[in-house]
Amino acid sequence: MRRIAQIGILGAGAWGTALAMAGARAGLNALLVGRDPTQAALMASSRLATKLPSARLPASVTPSSCLTALKEADALLLAVPAQAMREVCASLTPVVRPEMPVVACAKGIERGTGRFMTEIVGELLPETLPAILSGPSFAVDVAAGLPTAVVVAMDDAIAAAALATALTSPTLRLYHTTDRRGVEIGGAAKNVLAIAAGVVEGRGLGDSARAALTARGFAELRRFAAAHGAKPETLMGLSGLGDLMLTTSTPKSRNFAYGLALGRGDPPALAAHGKLAEGAFTAGVLADMARRCGIAMPVCEAVAAIIDGRLSINAAIDALMNRPVKAEE
Prior knowledge:
Order of helices and strands: EHEHEEHEHEHEHEHHHHHHHH
Number of helices: 14
Oligomer: single chain
Structural class: alpha/beta
Radius of gyration: 19 Å
Strand content: 5-15%
Strand order of the largest sheet: 3-2-1-4-5-6-7-8
CATH architecture of the largest domain: 3-Layer(aba) Sandwich
Largest sheet: 8 strands, mixed
CATH class of the largest domain: Alpha Beta
């Protein structure tokens, strides 16, 4: 893997823009590529981040709508929704080169296939180095330069360390690991649990209920991760417990806000209020995968059933509270 001096970010939404700004603070040139030529031109001329109000782009961030501009990058960050990852990777075939790090920055599992993000990268771009970036981070915090820590995972420990070092700045600290699966599961499953926590808050069930649900949900997450070969310490780190603590505690989390709206009576189709809540797409596939593996995940099952309209919130609460008494595990 060659030295990283320039990064390409595909996806000029809030998260992609924040990552480009973070890369600039780390001393890198950042190519920020979005689909909308008008937006790219506006960002280039005004130096304003259109998806992050009041944020200004550093001089070393170059907005563009030209996919081929990414050929100049030493590493790619894919800041696109999880369910769009396959289509995006397919479009990158003419851009990537062998042993280029391609970092998925989405937290989800592909519907229909049950594929994790780095599996999609590896399948569509087999000569690259698939990686995943995750952890407790809001785009507005990263863009503002507030202290944040995340983790990047790749199979190659040396490459993972090099990538983490290149992206680390005084305000964004990256840890690294080879446990891709643990990082991916932590990021995907916590979104579903954040929806559950939001439902509890929106229903006015109290802080005790939210704490209990979060703890039991985390036990589900750890069981699922263990069944897929993840390391226990990964789930206790930034991409697991750390991200879960953040996203189950504030409406700044889109998934928590989605659950909050559900708890207050909004129908699932409208509860996102035009914003992307990745957990709404992940809940069903996560529950299906757990059933096939024989893993009990009642909280995730309840969220999936509520979103699919198979269970009312009151019925889901009753079902969870009336489960058989058992030892805590």
